[in-house]
Every structure is written in structure tokens, then in C-alpha cells.
Amino acid sequence: VNMEGTTMTFERPKRPRRAKLTDETVREIWNLLRKGWFQHDIAAKLGINQARVSEVNTGKRGGHITGLRPS
Fold first, then answer.
1. What's the pLDDT score for residue 18?
2. Which of 8, 22, 28, 41 is most deeply buried (CB count within 10 A of its CB)?
3. Across the strands, what pairs with 9?
4. Which residue has the higher pLDDT, 68 or 10?
């Protein structure tokens, strides 16, 4: 809260920066998916959200590595 004179302004808390998936992590996800691992097991192993694993699996992330393109 900032009080200057009679005007009060509120600043939103800053969100922490999200870690980007490295090429190495995308390769590991891709390899584990090809071996038949479940997405939630990969996410738990790597400490990431299962949605990121799904994005690699569908080509929304890491397409430059997997060769997949989002449909």
C-alpha cells in the first residue's frame, strides 16, 4: 500500500517467474513418454506440473525437439 497525500494505491503482488522447460527436460519427457510412462509419473519425477508433460506430448511445447506440431 502506498499512501501519498490522500491517494491510496494498491500494487498487485508479483508472481514468481516460471521456470522454462529446457531442451534437456523436453528430451527426457519425450523419452519417458515413448517408454510408456504415465504423464503424472513423469511430472512427479521431474517436479513439474502434469500439464507441462501433456504439452510436450501434444506438441504445444518442445516441438523443435520432438518433431510434433500442435494441431
1. 66
2. 28
3. 2
4. 68
